[in-house]
Structure formats: structure tokens, C-alpha cells
Amino acid sequence: MSNLRIAVQKSGRLNEDSMRILKDIGISIDNGKDQLKAAARDFPVEVFYLRNGDIPQYLKDGVVDAAIIGENVLIEKGNDIQFVERLGFSKCKVSIAVPKESNASSLKDLAGKRIATSYPETVKKFLVEQNIDAQLHKINGSVEIAPNIGLADGICDIVSSGSTLFKNGLKEIEVLLKSEAVLAVSPQINAERKAILEKIQFRIQSVLKGRNSKYILLNAPNDKLENILKLLPGMRSPTVLPLAEKGWSSVHTVISKNQFWEIIDELKANGAEGILVCPIEKMVL
Ligand SMILES: Nc1ncnc2c1ncn2[C@@H]1O[C@H](COP(=O)(O)OP(=O)(O)OP(=O)(O)O)[C@@H](O)[C@H]1O
Ligand SMILES: O=P(O)(O)OC[C@H]1O[C@H](OP(=O)(O)OP(=O)(O)O)[C@H](O)[C@@H]1O
Ligand SMILES: [Mg+2]
């Protein structure tokens, strides 16, 4: 049986979370840091450690079958590489920014001006769509410094917390796209490796559902049970077990991780006690 060849970023912002998700789905790799390729111990997978920007071409050429990569890079390289799963990490925006004292308030206002960026193809696409003529300067890093050194009137770069923009006296005026890490697939993948990829996808979905959910246990007075159950949807429905103490029940269920803080006050107002919220490692519906 052949191995699925999966690319991850060798070093940088995606590396750690990519390795963590592989580990969480049971793919363990004995990785010497300077290794460029490693076979998994217990799954037919080989991991290739590559530069993020090189991965779309490797996918296109079929040198690797799949990759964990920023969606923004797939868009920039424009090779029609599809992805099958959003992975929920490395969330960021690709935005247009200008010096904070500038009057420009959208990409349109940069018509005839100079834009510095590491993502020229992405910017070009938006300029063409909006019929704007602007001059693009490709730079590979520290893009935010370009307006301060007189190289450009505006920039297009990745924005996450916004602190790099702030530190460089810039303001975001337009979000071109939102991005996160995705599981991308080579158009050349064969049937045997596709079957392995589908197993990986299933495992990833179980891990991501688990990460987005919490297991909640609480004690409820029976006369308030109906109200409490209304606040708590479950995978099918909550489990209710009698407590040794008369008039009380134990309620167990799964909720989305964001829901807890929204319902906690109402749970308490309805007499819920001993509320425990536990992480879920994996979830198969
Ligand atoms: N500040 C950020 N917050 C969240 N995600 C980010 C941030 N910066 C970059 N990313 C995402 O992580 C990906 C990798 O970014 P990183 O800076 O590590 O690599 P790179 O320099 O673009 O690529 P290479 O591996 O080719 O050197 C980006 O393509 C983007 O999807
Ligand atoms: O909005 P923020 O949270 O400040 O993040 C945005 C910054 O993060 C990225 O740079 P990175 O730190 O990856 O450095 P790099 O330019 O060397 O890739 C990106 O290129 C921005 O400069
Ligand atoms: Mg970076």
C-alpha cells in the first residue's frame, strides 16, 4: 500500500498547530528538526516539511497529495487547488492599510497610487474586479514599513490582532479576504491515496468537533428540570440520572464551547449546582 504524502510548513506560524492536529488524529512522527521528510509510525502517511509559499506548486505537480496550508496562499498562487476542510487555526485577514493620517478609505482611493505587498496576485485580482489602476510593489516581508520609508502609499498584508499595523502608524481600510489553515488536495491524487485522505478527513472532523464542544455535568432540582433541559441541547438529548438524594437529578450533555457563558446565569437561576465543564478529545456523531 502506498503512503499519502502530506505537506506541512517546515517552520513558521502554521507548523506547531499542523503538527498538533496530526498528533491528535493519531499520526505520530519521529521528527528530527532538520528532517525534510518523515514517515508516520502507525498510519500510511509521509510528512514533507516545506515552505508555505512552495506548497501550491507541489500540490499542482502531484509531488505531494495533500497539505496543511493557509487559504490565503492558495488564493495567491491561484493554481485551482481545492481544499476539503477548514482547520480552525491561523485565522487572519488579508487587508489593505494606509498611514493613519491618509484620507483613503477603500481600495478605490488607491487608484493611481503605489501598493506594497507580498500578495500581488491577490491584490491584482481585486484591482481588476473593481477596475482600478494602481502600481504594485512586491516585497517579501516587513511590508508594513513600506509607507514609512516612502516606498508606497498603501499596503496589502496579513492582519490578525492589528498590532503590527498600529505599531507602524497604519490603519486597515479594506478587508480583501479572510483566511485560516485548510487541508488542501492535489488535483493529481490517486484513488488509493484519496481513500487514506478520506480517513484523515474523518479523524480531523472528529477532533475539530471535539475542540468546539464541551461536556457539561450538573445537578438539577427535579422541579426545575424541565427549564434546565430547555437550556441544554444535547447530541441527541441530555442524559438525566437520579441522584441518591431525593428530588435531584444529574444532567449530562454536550454543548458548543461558546454556549456555556451564555447559559450559565440561567442555569444557576434555575437552581443548577455542581456544574462541571470538561474538554472533549474527539467526537463522532
Ligand atoms: N499574524 C498572523 N496571525 C494568524 N495567521 C497568520 C499570521 N501571519 C500569517 N498567518 C498565516 O500563517 C501562514 C504562514 O505564515 P508565516 O509567516 O509563518 O509564513 P510565510 O512567511 O508566509 O511562508 P514560508 O513558509 O514560505 O516562509 C500565512 O500564510 C497565513 O495563512
Ligand atoms: O495583526 P498582527 O497580529 O500584528 O499580525 C500581522 C503580522 O503577522 C505576520 O507577520 P509575521 O509575524 O508572520 O512575520 P513575517 O513578516 O516574518 O512573516 C504578517 O505578515 C503581519 O506582519
Ligand atoms: Mg509571516
UniProtKB/TrEMBL annotation:
<dbReference type="Pfam" id="PF01634">
    <property type="entry name" value="HisG"/>
</dbReference>
<comment type="pathway">
    <text>Amino-acid biosynthesis; L-histidine biosynthesis; L-histidine from 5-phospho-alpha-D-ribose 1-diphosphate: step 1/9.</text>
</comment>
<dbReference type="InterPro" id="IPR015867">
    <property type="entry name" value="N-reg_PII/ATP_PRibTrfase_C"/>
</dbReference>
<keyword id="KW-0963">Cytoplasm</keyword>
<dbReference type="GO" id="GO:0000105">
    <property type="term" value="P:L-histidine biosynthetic process"/>
</dbReference>
<keyword id="KW-0808">Transferase</keyword>
<dbReference type="GO" id="GO:0005737">
    <property type="term" value="C:cytoplasm"/>
</dbReference>
<comment type="similarity">
    <text>Belongs to the ATP phosphoribosyltransferase family. Long subfamily.</text>
</comment>
<dbReference type="InterPro" id="IPR013115">
    <property type="entry name" value="HisG_C"/>
</dbReference>
<keyword id="KW-0067">ATP-binding</keyword>
<comment type="function">
    <text>Catalyzes the condensation of ATP and 5-phosphoribose 1-diphosphate to form N'-(5'-phosphoribosyl)-ATP (PR-ATP). Has a crucial role in the pathway because the rate of histidine biosynthesis seems to be controlled primarily by regulation of HisG enzymatic activity.</text>
</comment>
<dbReference type="InterPro" id="IPR018198">
    <property type="entry name" value="ATP_PRibTrfase_CS"/>
</dbReference>
<keyword id="KW-0460">Magnesium</keyword>
<keyword id="KW-0368">Histidine biosynthesis</keyword>
<dbReference type="GO" id="GO:0005524">
    <property type="term" value="F:ATP binding"/>
</dbReference>
<keyword id="KW-0328">Glycosyltransferase</keyword>
<feature type="domain" description="ATP phosphoribosyltransferase catalytic">
    <location>
        <begin position="51"/>
        <end position="205"/>
    </location>
</feature>
<dbReference type="GO" id="GO:0000287">
    <property type="term" value="F:magnesium ion binding"/>
</dbReference>
<keyword id="KW-0547">Nucleotide-binding</keyword>
<dbReference type="InterPro" id="IPR001348">
    <property type="entry name" value="ATP_PRibTrfase_HisG"/>
</dbReference>
<keyword id="KW-0479">Metal-binding</keyword>
<feature type="domain" description="Histidine biosynthesis HisG C-terminal">
    <location>
        <begin position="211"/>
        <end position="282"/>
    </location>
</feature>
<keyword id="KW-0028">Amino-acid biosynthesis</keyword>
<protein>
    <recommendedName>
        <fullName>ATP phosphoribosyltransferase</fullName>
        <ecNumber>2.4.2.17</ecNumber>
    </recommendedName>
</protein>
<dbReference type="InterPro" id="IPR011322">
    <property type="entry name" value="N-reg_PII-like_a/b"/>
</dbReference>
<dbReference type="InterPro" id="IPR013820">
    <property type="entry name" value="ATP_PRibTrfase_cat"/>
</dbReference>
<dbReference type="GO" id="GO:0003879">
    <property type="term" value="F:ATP phosphoribosyltransferase activity"/>
</dbReference>
<dbReference type="Pfam" id="PF08029">
    <property type="entry name" value="HisG_C"/>
</dbReference>
<dbReference type="InterPro" id="IPR020621">
    <property type="entry name" value="ATP-PRT_HisG_long"/>
</dbReference>
